[in-house]
Automatic annotation (TrEMBL):
Entry's Gene Ontology molecular function annotations: DNA-binding transcription factor activity; transcription cis-regulatory region binding
Protein name: TetR family transcriptional regulator
Record key words, sorted: DNA-binding
Highest taxon in the source lineage: Bacteria
Keyword Iron included in the entry's annotation: no
Residue range(s) of DNA binding per entry: 33-52
Entry keyword Oxidoreductase: no
Domain annotation HTH tetR-type: ranges: 10-70
Amino acid sequence: MSNAHAPAPTSRREQILKEAARLFAERGFHGVGVDEIGAAVGISGPGLYRHFAGKDAMLAELLVGISERLLAGGRMRIEEGGETPSAVLDALIDGHIDFALDDRPLITLHDRELDRLREADRKRVRQLQRQYVELWVEVVRQVHPESAESEVRAAVHAVFGLLNSTPHLGRPGSLPGRAEMARLLHRLALGAFGAVDADGAAVAPVVVEGVAASRRAG
């Protein structure tokens, strides 16, 4: 098989960040030493300082970096568009599900360690997150135009809470496979957004790109 489409090799810097995220999530930021991170990637602890100034710099790059990637990914999916606002929303949900299933340590790290960032980095994370939320709010309002903006924004935050619960869902062996879990999360997210249409109208199941969802009957 040709290697033309093979993924680019992971850089040493990326390896360090991946292992740092895993270790920080498992043991806490102060429970992990530079030597342990170095050992996880096969270099000496002092060797890490050729890549990062220290653990604080790793933490900042992890949390600012994932916020930047989520926002950029959301913008890309909106720009690529779809035939309908619902298709764009499906793409946004799928992108966030990929993050929630594949980057669980970063979710744990954000929940536990965000306050350890320098004020400037913490403000940057919050700013990026607000922009990401507003991307979703705009799309969801297109799908549910009769819903109040405040309710849509609350629903977006609730869906993020739902999708970002993946680190707490139990041991991997006790859960459905990745594809099944992704489909389940997608259905749950669509169901939550459908709930903003709270005018008592009947709810009918529809299928959007192969994903069953509850949407208000016309």
